[in-house]
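User: Okay, second chain of the day. Same drill as before: sequence in, structure tokens out.
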Amino acid sequence: MYGSTKIQIDTSNKNSFLESDSINIQTDHFEEIFGNDQYVIVMLKNENLFSYESLTLLRELHEEIVDSAEFIERVVSLNDIEYTVGDEYGMRIEQIVPDVIPVDKNELAQIREKAFAKENFRKRLISKDGTQTLLTIKFLPFPADWKKDYSMSPDELAGMSVLNIIEKDKYKSLNPKAIGVPVINHQKREYFAAETSRVMGLAILLAIVILIIALRSVWGVIVPILSAISSMIVMYGVVGFIGYPVDNMVLSFPFLIGFSVSIAYSIQLF
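Assistant: Same drill. Structure tokens below.
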């Protein structure tokens, strides 16, 4: 029983491919050069995106992610995009959103004009109608020996930390929606943790019903259920003790197979 609590969940997408697969080889090569290929994109939507309130919230969100999220290397958003302009003295670089966000509508309109002045901004950062913008998060290389310091994989931890920030009530008016492998891995873990318990419970209930109908014997129900559960505890315990990582998508499969075999043998024996 204790060993089953030590099962390590691996959400890496590499498990879906063979080690010799070109996808894994190219991913490893990319990480050797650039350090990490993990990003999270947060889409923000507000009808008055260039209002004082929205720009202030955007800045607070940007700064909180930089300060509080895990493994952050860089955050790029409308808040810190530089804008290059030419003047009589040469070139001048300034931020689209100034350090002191203006309240005046004319000054806010100028910020909007600057945001739409560059083609790259219009195509990659802001929607055509000016109601949506993107906040891009790049992560540091995740440590290979993370098990010493963390209870979950770094990509999950990174995704969870971002979600915990953007889901705060204060940012609801920006309607933040996040996507990216770290976020998906965390959500996948949460989903399958809940679903696995439900599937196992339904499997036990269904097994009991089938055995009652097929065998109509108390021992014919008790023995196969106990044998199936005890064998699953032993199996999960061994996996936990040897430290073999398991993809949470297949965590319930042995349980279902074990019950199927147990029921089949019980019907033949009893």
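Helices lie at 22-34, 52-68, 105-117, 119-124, 154-166, 181-215, 218-242, 253-269.

User: Thanks, on to the next one.
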